[in-house]
Design goal:
With 224 residues, the protein is of the alpha+beta class. The protein has helices at 6-9, 23-33, 53-62, 77-83, 88-91, 105-115, 135-139, 146-161, 187-198, and strands at residues 37-41, 47-52, 119-123, 129-134, 169-174, 177-186, 205-214. A three-stranded mixed sheet has the order 5-6-7, covered by helices on one side. It has a two-stranded antiparallel sheet with strand order 1-2. Strands 3-4 form a two-stranded antiparallel ribbon. Helix 3 packs across helix 4 (77-83).
């Protein structure tokens, strides 16, 4: 099974800053490059944190409302300290959760979801920054053409993974939705085929309309 890796989807030219980079310079870089965050790198180009628009706005959030109508927000001690910072080293969220270029879309998406992140720095074996991958980058797998998805299911799933003749099955793909028709010897094979089809990059949904001979999921010797 071929899966698109983070290395294939990531942006290689990354705008980054150092811990000593000032507040205004960070704001300028975000505006100039139309981005929402930058990784903060140490002297060996290893990510040590991320500064986002939200981090920059902590200072404004902590200010008293000039009109006196809004209550001062209750910031944690860590947030309060960051709200007073003027350089990337003090402003950044840490640690920098990173990923590797060989990771699959699933691995990267799970790390983003677990950390409530919109992007991940990509690092090499030594932990040095080589790229950055965003939610939008991961979603690019769903831009694959239906024809490419169909051929991958026929070749990689049916032929290579399952040893089944591709011409013995109907594989229809429309807007990433797969419909699989045909006949298998055992019902359990239909479940396996559904899982494998769902794992193909770009697949949105799978409908399995397979007939079967023996129902080996309902007890030994059970027949359809």
């Amino acid at each position: 099974m071929r899966h698109r890796s983070v290395g294939q989807l990531m942006t290689r030219r990354v705008v980054s800053v150092r811990p000593g980079t000032g507040f205004k310079e960070i704001a300028r870089l975000l505006a100039e490059h139309d981005i929402t965050a930058v990784p903060v790198l140490d002297a060996e180009d290893r990510p040590v944190g991320i500064v986002s628009e939200a981090d920059l706005l902590l200072g404004e959030c902590a200010r008293e409302d000039p009109s006196g109508l809004l209550l001062t927000p209750g910031l944690s001690p860590e947030q309060a300290a960051r709200s007073r910072a003027t350089t990337a080293g003090g402003l950044m969220s840490r640690p920098a959760l990173c990923c590797r270029p060989e990771w699959t879309v699933v691995e990267a998406a799970r790390r983003m979801q677990h950390g409530h992140l919109k992007r991940l720095p990509v690092v090499d074996e030594a932990g040095r920054l080589i790229g950055i991958v965003s939610r939008g980058d991961l979603l690019r797998v769903f831009l694959r053409q239906d024809r490419a998805i169909r051929e991958e299911i026929r070749h990689d799933v049916l032929d290579e993974a399952m040893g089944l003749p591709p011409d013995g099955f109907g594989v229809a793909v429309e807007e990433g939705r797969v419909t699989l028709t045909g006949t298998v010897e055992r019902r359990s094979l239909a479940d396996v085929l559904e899982r494998l089809c769902r794992s193909v990059d770009g697949v949105v949904d799978v409908t399995v309309l397979l007939d079967h001979g023996t129902d080996d999921t309902a007890g030994v010797g059970a027949e359809r």
